[in-house]
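Exercise 3.2. Students should predict the tertiary structure of the chain below and write it as structure tokens, then compare their answer with the key that follows.

Predict this chain's 3D structure.
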Amino acid sequence: MKRLLLNLRATLPVKMAGLLVFFWLAVFVLNSLWPLPPLYPDGPATVVVSRDGEILRSFGDRQGVHRYNVTLADVDPFYIQALLNYEDRWFYWHPGVNPVSVVRAAWQWASNGYVVSGGSTLTMQVARLIDPHARSITGKLKQLWRALQLEWYYSKDEILTFYLNLAPFGGNIAGVEAASRRYFNTTAGHLTKNEAALLVVLPQKPSLYRPDRYPDTAQSMRNKVLDRLHGSGLLSDKATQHLKQEAVELRRSHNTTLAPLLSRMLREQYPDRHIIQTTLDGVIQQRVARLLTKVKRQLPAHSSAAVLVVDNQTANVLAYQGSVDFQDNSRFAHVDMIQAVRSPGSTLKPFIYGMAIDRGVIHTESLLSDIPTRFF
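Answer key:
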């Protein structure tokens, strides 16, 4: 017996080392056969912004989905807290899969014959978003593998950020920032508690919980989140009661697209960027757009106009309006007249006119004749 124990002690480290080598070899092979897919398989959904962060124009990805990528620091802390509490309390402690939740969900399904509660962690939800799978045992195993891969390659904060930017919120809207702007005309960093609670639950069934289509259902699910937060001690009795009495209030944005032709050009130049920062001044750009709207009424049919405003000190472009009206196809709205090729003489005309005004030769109502002139 003593000799057997000695033999076991001698061979145990070797066997453990062999199992460890086999495990890592299996992981390497699986990772080679089924590598982690791109986080944005349909390409980025690009947002072009002014120098102050104002959205000028947004472009959907190849599926037409719009999202405005944000970081954790850009999102309201209460939303993050509510999300983790409602969806995945042990997010920062589990390895991508919560065994307790999986076992509980499987037991409830076996006992009742239908799904009572899901066992998906936030990591598993990200895995499903980047690599959709069928609702089957094979599909679930693939989701578990993707979750483990995500945990291997990325930090917890990075995975949580992926969820914030990939989660579906109804229609062609993905990500909490796009949803905040779409439904409440605010940023994800300035959500109210009720808005945050609604956006926490909306990705579970975005087509059924949409507040713009099913306000009563949306309010009921929002209140469910509030009750959960109250039960966890994150909301007081009084605050919970007060918040649940509020109706779902939507505030849709009526902002028009600004600098559409410049945005189009920049997106073609930087097709892989989620956010393109410009030097445009949002206030000046809006004033230029309004000015050309007035000018349009005075122009002949099928004619257009363009304005480029540049800061002479820095050479930064402050406003860029490539056509008189981007919505008017009769005026060749999609032709960028700022970039259009023209003769050198035509290029110099605005500067000659401006110099003539500066020198007092003409005034703003004068007609500067464009005819050949001889000086003797």
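Discussion points: The chain has three domains: 1-33, 67-210+213-245, 260-358. The chain is about 45% helix and 5% strand.
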